[in-house]
Each structure stands twice: as C-alpha cells, then as structure tokens.
Write a structure and sequence with these properties.
The chain has 2 domains: 83 residues, Arc Repressor Mutant, subunit A, CATH 1.10.10; 154 residues, Glucose-6-phosphate isomerase like protein, domain 1 (Rossmann fold, 3-Layer(aba) Sandwich). Helix content is 54%, strand content 8%. The protein contains 13 helices and 5 strands. The protein has a 5-stranded parallel sheet with strand order 2-1-3-4-5, sandwiched between helices. Helix 1 packs across helix 7, helix 7 crosses helix 12 and helix 9 packs parallel to helix 12. The longest helix has 22 residues.
Amino acid sequence: MRGTIMSSRHRTLLSRLHQAEGLSVGHRKLAELLLGHPLEAPFWGIEEVALKSGTSTSAVVRFAKRLGYTGFTELKRDLVAEMQLRSHGEGRLVTAPHGILATLAEVATRDIQNLERLTHLMDETELTAVVNLLGRARSRVLIGHGVSWVMATQLGYVLTMAGLTTVAGNPAEFARQVANLGPKDVLVAFSFPPYSQETLNVASFAKSRKIPVIAITDRRESPLGKSATHALAVPGESLFFSQSLAAFNALTHTLATTLANRNPTGIIDRLREAEKVSEDLFTKDWKS
C-alpha cells in the first residue's frame, strides 16, 4: 500500500521497511542504517540512532510512526526480534518451505522485496554521479571475489554493450591492473559479507593514487565504502548462502541503459560492426 504503513502485530520491521514508499531523505538514511546493522541496531538508544543517521531524535520518532509504530520503543522491540531471528543460527535463514513451488514463491517474494528496497534506498544524485563518472572515464576496471566476481563480469558485459571500454579484472592480477589506472579512469569494486580483504586493499590503493572508486556493496558504511568516491548499496537477502542478484541485475541494466541512451545511434553502429566480425561464430538458420 502507499503512504503510511498500517500498524500490525503480524508485520515485521523488515516488511514495513520494504513496503514503505515516498520516504524523505532523512527517513531513507534511517532505513538504510537499520537495514545495514541488524545485529547492532537493537542495542542503540534513540540518541545514538539519530547521531549515526545524521538526523535528530524527533526525526527518529517520526520515522517510527511513519512505519506504523507508536514510537521508537515499539520499533526497537521489533529490532530486537529481528536480531534474535538472525542470531539463532544461519540455518534458519536458509530454511526453505516444503515443496519446490512454495520455495519458488518464497524466493520470488524475497527478490521483490530486494527490488523494492533498492528503489527506496537509492539516491538519484548519487546514481547520476555514478553514471557520469562511468560515462566520462577513459577506461573502467571491475574487481570482486566470489559472487562479487559474477557481478563484475555481468556489469562489464553490459557496459561493453553500451559502448564503454571495460575490463572485468582477473583476481590474480587485481593490484597490477589497478596500478595501470590513473585519475581519468575508474575502478568499480564489489564486496559483500564476508568482505574480501584483497578487494578492500586494492580499493584503498586506488584511492591513494587518486583513482575514482565506485563501490557496490551491501551498505554505504561497509568497509569498502571507506575508499569509495561513490557507493551504491544493493540489497540481496536470500534463502541461499549467497547474495541474491535480482536487485543487482536491475541496477546493472539501469546503469547500462542510461549510458546507452546518451548515444544510441553510435552504439547501434558499433554493434553492427562487431556482428560483421563475429557472424561466423553464430548459427544463422536452424534446420531440423
């Protein structure tokens, strides 16, 4: 529903945050803070929440009421409940419903929530700055380990399709690849819990060389965010042991589509030229 979220004892804090629409800048900061610190936030008082979010105690109270709570005390009770759910072992987080269709429905529901969180928590000014930086950079190197490597290769692919010179870094050569960059280039670094120390080190190294760094991570206050010129927080809660890619897929295609729309004719011409070079690699007609 739109507007103020109705109070309900059956609604968890996460679901309230996922369904909240039209949040102000201050309320988005509060939502991001609480979502990014599920294990620490239950121990914070109202003054600490206000300080950490850069808002005020009155803003925290208004935020709680915006979510349908009577005040901060009731919101904090749900923060504690969320923490207890998470701290009772990771097995509970990956317990799927009985039946494959029920599991599919649960996975889809969580991904819808991730997409809703993405749209609520993204800041248009920051997104625009990221697009502009990607667009004007001389070259782009993308790095990440594990699921972050999957993200790097996917973003690298669509940016290349959008006509931008992009390299998904080789994990064995991160430092040397970044050493070849300069202030006119950009490093896009991906890291989600558990954070890759190598990725953090390389991002810090890039920052020390005045190379712009775009961080794509779980929250702006993550260890990777400390080295970032710009940071984008991507939600990815899932039933599995890895980050869901649904919200990241949406972000990836948003960035590539926005960049491609700046020069659609030129991109189409380049793609046609590329097809001429590689046309022998593809089956033209399939006959049984």
